[in-house]
Amino acid sequence: MIYILNENNSILNQFIAEIRDENIQKDKIRFRRNLERIGEIIAYEISKKLEFSEKLIQTSLGISNTPVLSEKLVLGTILRAGLPFHQGLLNYFDSAENAFVSAYRKYNKDGSFDIEVEYISSPNIEEKTLILADPMLATGLSMVLAYKSLLENGIPAHTHIVSIIASREGVEYLNKHLPTENITLWIIAIDDELTAKSYIVPGLGDAGDLAYGSKGD
Q1: How many domains does the chain have?
Q2: Residue 16 falls inside a structural domain
Q3: Structural domain harbouring 188
Q4: What predicted TM-score, i.e. pTM, was given to this entire model?
Q5: CATH number (domain holding residue 139)
Q6: Rg (CA), the chain
Q7: Residue 71 resides in a domain
Q8: pLDDT of 187-216, one tens digit each?
Q9: Which residues contact 103 (CB under 8 A, 6 or more apart)?
Q10: Taking each helix axis from N to C terminus, what angle separates 11-20 and 28-47, rounded to the nearest 10 degrees?
């Protein structure tokens, strides 16, 4: 199942316009905050697909029978651009456990690259609901590798994979290399092209650099 959230007009599209705008991008605080706000909106949309149970809530005047979230959630993020995006998800799913995957592109002399995973910090995810987020889904390699790495800590009951901007090629790669059951993909916008260096066009550039500064050589 794939949800593409910019197919309907909402304030979400305003935030996407701002993170794409090369002039607004110069304000790193605003860029990070927009990633966070986008995470909050996606968390709200995902919450509509989760399980709730009735709970009796004692108020000062009586008892209210209110549905509350019953699923056990783990929020997983690919470092480093995913951090403000992750915070937005966590703002709404504030009782969730958290997992972090350190993955990067290791470039070869011919300009090609491999995805290397250096570090994983994760709770047990067996039979829990995993929400795995990365702002940009370019080739899809890092997302698939991160997902498979997290399976060392258990098999989730369901996985929601979340990206802000994806390439069409990246979406197709996920469809080919991830299980067809128990995975939902949430994308805000899908762009058609990748550059020779596998950057999304029009995309927005390097989300990690825009959020936290260049990595250096």
Answers
A1: 1
A2: yes
A3: 2-48+78-212
A4: 0.91
A5: 3.40.50.2020
A6: 18
A7: no
A8: 999 999 998 788 899 999 989 899 998 876
A9: 78, 79, 115, 116, 117, 118, 142, 145, 146
A10: 150
